[in-house]
Amino acid sequence: MSLAVVRSRALVGLQAPEVRVEVHLANGLPALHLVGLPQAAVRESADRVRAALLQAGHQVPSRRITVNLTPADLPKDSGRFDLPIAVGILAASGQVPAEALEGLAFVGELSLTGQVRPIRGVLAMLLALQADDPRRRLVLPAACQAEAELLPDGQALLASDLTEVCAHLRGDAPLPRAAHRTPEPAAPAVPDLASVRGHAQAKRALEIAAAGGHSLLMVGPPGAGKSLLAGCLAGLLPPMAHEQSLACALVASVSGGFLPAQWGRRPLRAPHHSASVAALVGGGNPPRPGEITLAHHGVLFLDELPEFPRAALEGLREPLETGSVTLSRAARQASYPARFQLVAAMNPCPCGHHGSGIRACVCPPGAPARYRHRLSGPLLDRIDLQIDVAAVSAQELLGCPPPGQGPEGPGGSAATARRVAAAQARALARQGVPNAGLSPAGIEAHCRAEPAALALVQRAAQRWHWSARTLHRVLRVARSIADLADQPAILPAHATEAVHYRQSAILGAPPDPAGPP
């Protein structure tokens, strides 16, 4: 037989479309030609496959070998097609039975010694194969066993080298199947709220943000504790459901960074402020996920927010609203989930002490305003909670009781996490999504408020000329505060607190004492 067809899988975003690897042997000068829109890494597979076949003790036919990767209009990248190309050459030359390829698909990169090396996106390929052809088994690198074990049906066959694959195809020694095993979730290694001295208002804002999935911006002088507070948020969030854990594992698999120890743990991403648009939002060719996708179902912490490139920050606007990002390129388009919780921190000015009351600001006139204007109005409009974080005095830092025994009460993050879990459970039972994910129709249906509370929010919206988006976000925050208090309706006290968290004394006008408190 001079023709063999081997099934494989490509990777486009989070999707894994099927690719048929057609290998044809013809008379002519010995050569190996790859067609079907292969990129550089795929074109280089010709040399890797040739060396791997020879090292594994197989013959490379002294004929003209043509490998067609179909569909031809789908760009093919990375070395995941090495193994199916090698198997196709062996089947076309009669070194393994061609009928043994039925019911199998192959992915894997080959080393020059014939070892099957790990690839990224194995979980996406298994999920796609499970949806398209559940009876077909996927032969993949044994090093990707941890990802294969996340699915329950044993659809993956594990191969360490090309010799094992050939022995399986000949029926000599079957490849082992990946058994279903769900890793035990590990507790996040984050600071405890009990270790934070003072900052009662910031802790309350963290609790509200965790309960409703709201975005949070903290403004204060350097060393006030903003980064420490932000690091505590991941420890307040409820454990992820299985579907959320699988979605996070899928994103990590596609990016090539899946670790079994991270199963069930909410991602906490903290990119440096020099991150580019492609690093933060995603990009490249082919498009790869960025930090907002890697933080899916988790926390994205942006420290020194105004220092990020303006274009990178503006790229957050649509994902904050929709929970997804679509990266369009000339040749292809990829969509990634981006349901992250934004926590940001910034100084009030370049020197960091404008309005702090502790040290005089040394910035030239107009510098604080220019610094604040690095953040656009539309971006600030999408941040639910905006609070000022004042510096804690040395007396308060040194004179407080030991952590967990002060006025904050015992338990720290554990006690707060229990209140957050109860509040979020109420929201999910009522509407099926966290309060931050409520649509305008959902706000009208589930954010029921007493007349006095509605009147207070209405006066605040008129006084500070809120947009419809700002008004809706205030109502969502008020709903989260009511859930923490186990109240079925939004009371005036809940609305008052939500309005206060919307007006930072540094970024915008503080609440007018003559108006709503």
What would you note in describing this structure?
The chain is of the alpha/beta class and 517 residues long. The protein folds into three domains: 3-170, 2-Layer Sandwich (Ribosomal Protein S5, domain 2), CATH 3.30.230.10; 193-429, 3-Layer(aba) Sandwich (Rossmann fold); 438-517. The protein has 21 helices and 18 strands. It has helices at 40-43, 45-55, 82-92, 122-132, 145-148, 162-170, 200-212, 226-232, 242-255, 277-281, 291-294, 310-314, 317-322, 367-372, 377-381, 394-399, 413-431, 440-446, 451-463, 468-484, 492-500; strands at residues 3-9, 18-26, 31-35, 64-70, 104-106, 109-110, 116-117, 137-141, 156-159, 216-219, 268-269, 282-283, 288-289, 299-302, 324-328, 333-337, 341-346, 385-388. The strands form six sheets. The protein has a five-stranded parallel sheet. Strands 1-2-4-3 form a four-stranded mixed sheet. It has a three-stranded parallel sheet with strand order 5-8-9. A hairpin with a 4-residue loop joins strand 15 (324-328) and strand 16 (333-337). The longest helix has 19 residues, at 413-431.
What is the CATH architecture term of the largest domain?
A: 3-Layer(aba) Sandwich
Note the total helix count. Answer: 21
Largest sheet: 5 strands, parallel
Strand content: 15-25%
The first-to-last residue Cα distance is 83 Å
Any idea what the CATH superfamily of the largest domain is called?
P-loop containing nucleotide triphosphate hydrolases
**Arithmetic mean pLDDT:** 90
Q: How many structurally independent domains?
A: 3
CATH class descriptor of the largest domain: Alpha Beta
The helicity comes to 25-40%
What Rg, in angstroms, do the CA atoms define?
A: 28 Å
Shape label: elongated
Strands in their spatial order, largest beta sheet: 11-14-17-10-18
Q: Give me the count of strands.
A: 18
**What class, by secondary structure content?**
alpha/beta
The CATH topology of the largest domain is given as Rossmann fold
Q: Please mark out the parts with pLDDT under 50 across 5 or more consecutive residues, or reply none.
A: 404-411
